[in-house]
Amino acid sequence: MDQTGLRGPAVLAYAHRGAAYLNITDRCPVACVFCAKRTWRWRYHGWDLRLGAREPSAAEALARAKPIIEQLRPREAVFCGFGEPTSRLAVVLETARLLRAARPQLRLRLNTIGLGDLINGRAIDQELSEVLDAVSVSLNTADPEQWLALHRPRDAFAGNGFASVLSFISACVDRELETTVTAVDLPGVRVDEVRRLAKRLGARFRLRPELRVNAARLEYRAKGGYN
Ligand code: SF4
Predict the structure, then answer these.
(1) Residue 212, pLDDT score
(2) CA separation for the pair 197, 52 (Å, rounded)
């Protein structure tokens, strides 16, 4: 047990499906019903992604990612953990700059819930477009009410969260970031509507399988999903 009360060294980077993943925060503005972090006790395929007070600087994240990148030679590096990376926008930007300088051919992608504008109190698409190649936005629904039910945002993000996510997606498309809207395959979600919305916003679309049932998901299922 270290001084933060967490066991073992923090996992700041890990390899998965031919990519290097950077875990820079475990803080989220939402509590998605499909999130696996509680059921999986913060472990993703064996990596303990809980950071607590051990969130890294850009230099620390890069130092952990470097051996993975050198050994694996991945096609891309992805900012993604059990938290919202844009909660630490400065670290995302600086780490991406360092990676770009070290490995110009490496594709750089952000996985996000899309609330970065609200989190940071300003539009962040331009800053992202200067250092990233792609963003993947977990939207999951075309229905604002269902968005609330699925993502259970904190109060500060509930009022105009959905609208802000759509605006963020459009802005990323306009900046020519490769922008993909994703949806988890859940009962009650009208996938075709999400796909159509993504197309209307100019983004790609990808349907994702649900990782694993958790308690919130069971409750959601018991209520018959959202209709
Ligand atoms: S944004 Fe990701 S890590 Fe955060 S609650 Fe949702 S699924 Fe979990």
Answers:
(1) 61
(2) 36
Phi-psi domain of 146 (left: phi exceeds 0; alpha: psi -120 through 50; beta: other): alpha
- What local confidence, expressed as pLDDT, does residue 162 receive? 98
Q: How far is CA 227 from the centre of its chain?
A: 26
Tell me the C-alpha distance between 119 and 114, whole Å. Answer: 10
**pLDDT score at 97:** 97
SS3 category, 205: strand
**How many Cβ atoms are within 10 Å of 3's Cβ, its own excluded?**
7
What is the 26 CA–ligand 1 centroid distance (Å)? 9
pLDDT at 226: 35
37 lines ligand 1 (CB under 6 A): yes
The structure's pTM equals 0.89
Where residue 223 falls among pLDDT bands split at 50, 70, 90?
Answer: low
- The alpha carbon of residue 104 and the mean position of all alpha carbons in its chain are separated, in whole angstroms, by 23
Kindly state the helix (H) or strand (E) to which residue 204 belongs, with its residue range. Answer: strand 204-208
Alpha helices in the chain (DSSP H): 58-72, 89-102, 116-120, 125-131, 144-151, 155-158, 161-174, 191-201, 215-222
The minimum-distance atom of ligand 1 relative to the CA of 37 is: 8
Domain annotation for the chain: domains and CATH numbers? 13-222 (3.20.20.70)
Neighbours of 199 (CB within 10 A): 12
User: Is the Cβ atom of 117 under 6 angstroms away from ligand 1?
Assistant: no
